[in-house]
Amino acid sequence: MRNPLLTIAVDRSGDHLVVRAAGEIDMGTAPDLAAALSDAVTAAPAPATIVADFTAVGFLGSAGLSVLVTAHHRGQRAGVRLAVVCPRDGLARRAFEISGLDHLLTVADTLDQALQPQDTP
Fold this sequence. Notes:
This protein is of the alpha/beta class. Helix content is 36%, strand content 31%. A five-stranded mixed β-sheet has the order 1-2-3-4-5. The longest helix is centred in the middle third of the chain and has 17 residues, at 62-78. The N and C termini lie far apart (36 Å). Belongs to the anti-sigma-factor antagonist family.
């Protein structure tokens, strides 16, 4: 998907899907991210992982965080795990920490870390 403020591309990594976002995720661009993640949840075979790669995201607003929470819950119902790649020193990572969503979502530094199997409580 192409938007002047946000570019989204979806790639396959084995059974997993990687939704790569570059640019700004705000209330104007969040619907594009929501559509891409919704399509990924539908397309991913359980127990796959969908990774939202935010390595190139410069801004992540509350609308984008809301989209991720919704995708996380949809994924859980479908048996698909959602993980997010976000550099530790990036502005987007700060949004996860401030909101506390880094405790709900798997937020990793790299794609390899995001694809590691998670222990279920």
